[in-house]
Write a structure and sequence with these properties.
3 domains, 10 helices, about 85% helix, cell membrane, Chromate_transpt, chromate transmembrane transporter activity, Chromate transporter, CHR_Transporter
């Protein structure tokens, strides 16, 4: 759904700043993207952000660029996607192009190495922060928690390809959703059946009253008793109609 209130220039400037001042790659940018787009500008919701990150991670390419493309497309369609992508890529391209002429001199510079050591430590914190925020937005059910732990364990301690982890997780999510929906429908049908059965069951007091009247008639009670029974039956009939 396009948002005409956000101009293409605003998209470009926003993602240009994000691309220029974010160190550490796409995962480090996730926390900054959420802070800028969700908390400050409120262009998208937290759920939108989570969905876009999942899509960006599941498709080829850099996660930061893919996310920028998704946000741009959501805000202003195809042109928005192009502008947002250019905005986030252009700063890195210009900086790397300029540094490429003197990369050897920078690599041997002690100040350069010390600065990037500190940046790497901060980037790790940003990535952990982004992970915590995304984890909080997950559904708090047993399936999601178990899948999160298992996927993390496989990715962290094995050489299993992350792409296959994502694909398997998606397939398991679809299967779980179908099973959950099927169980929910069965419970709903069962509850409807119980409700209809309850409505069709006769009133206990009415049945007892009819039995007493029949007993009195067969025992030879007088006409007044019979008339009283008829009146009682009419009242019970009115209750059932209501």
């Amino acid at each position: 759904m396009k948002n005409k209130s956000v101009s293409l220039w605003q998209l470009f400037i926003t993602f240009f700043k994000l691309g220029a001042f974010t160190f550490g790659g796409g995962y480090a940018m996730i926390a900054i993207l959420e802070e800028e787009l969700v908390s400050k500008k409120k262009w998208i919701t937290s759920q939108d952000m989570l969905d876009m990150i999942v899509i960006a991670e599941s498709t080829p390419g850099v996660i930061a660029v893919n996310t920028a493309t998704s946000v741009g497309y959501k805000m202003r369609g195809v042109f928005g996607a192009i502008i947002a992508t250019l905005g986030v890529v252009l700063p890195s391209f210009c900086i790397i192009f300029a540094l490429s002429f003197a990369i050897e001199a920078f690599q041997e510079n002690a100040w350069y190495n010390a600065a990037f050591a500190g940046i790497q430590a901060c980037v790790t914190i940003l990535i952990v922060n982004a992970f915590i925020k995304m984890a909080k937005q997950l559904e708090k059910d047993v399936f999601s928690i178990v899948l999160l732990i298992v996927a993390f364990g496989i990715a962290a301690f094995t050489e299993f390809n992350v792409i296959f982890i994502i694909l398997i997780g998606g397939a398991l999510g679809v299967v779980y959703s179908l099973i959950k929906e099927s169980v929910s429908k069965k419970k709903s049908l069962a509850n409807q059946g119980e409700t209809q059965l309850t409505l069709q069951m006769p009133d206990v007091d009415s049945v007892n009253s009819e039995n007493n009247c029949i007993k009195n008639v067969f025992d030879g009670e007088n006409d007044a008793t019979t008339e009283l029974c008829d009146t009682q039956q009419k009242q019970d009939s009115r209750k059932e109609d209501k």
